[in-house]
User: Which sequence fits this backbone?
């Protein structure tokens, strides 16, 4: 959603995490978007009037096929996309159930340990959210 007052594109997403079914180790979910050929967190534009947290969970479900339980809010990331300011609010969220099916927006999904996830992310600003998630989970 674009705010008519300030022209900012508003979006929301999650740093989606789970415990590995095989080892119990922490894994983070990254999605590959073929349109941009990038690896990022599941996120997307808010619909008009949509609550940001509800939008973040909707985007997770649409892009990954997983339902999630939200945790603490993480940093908001602001940047320019296609010449317009964009603001993405993020939450930590634990994946509870689901199954990924490739779709038009997301063709690949990877569950990775925190360090490899940080390395795989296309944009360095997204990597900062790994540390925030780890800190948030230690406090939980």
Assistant:
């Amino acid at each position: 959603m674009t705010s008519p007052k300030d022209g900012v594109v508003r979006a929301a997403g999650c740093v989606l995490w789970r415990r590995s079914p095989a080892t119990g180790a922490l894994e983070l979910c990254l999605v590959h978007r073929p349109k941009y050929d990038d690896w990022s967190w599941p996120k997307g534009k808010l619909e008009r009037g949509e609550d940001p947290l509800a939008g973040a969970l909707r985007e997770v479900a649409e892009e990954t096929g997983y339902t999630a339980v939200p945790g603490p809010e993480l940093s908001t990331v602001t940047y320019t996309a296609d010449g317009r300011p964009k603001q993405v609010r993020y939450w930590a969220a634990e994946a509870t159930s689901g199954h990924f099916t490739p779709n038009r927006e997301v063709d690949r999904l990877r569950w990775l340990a925190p360090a490899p996830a940080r390395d795989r992310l296309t944009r360095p600003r997204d990597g900062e959210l790994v540390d925030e998630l780890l800190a948030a989970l230690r406090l939980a």
The beta strands are 9-19, 26-33, 38-40, 43-45, 66-81, 84-98, 108-112. DSSP finds three helices and seven strands in the chain.
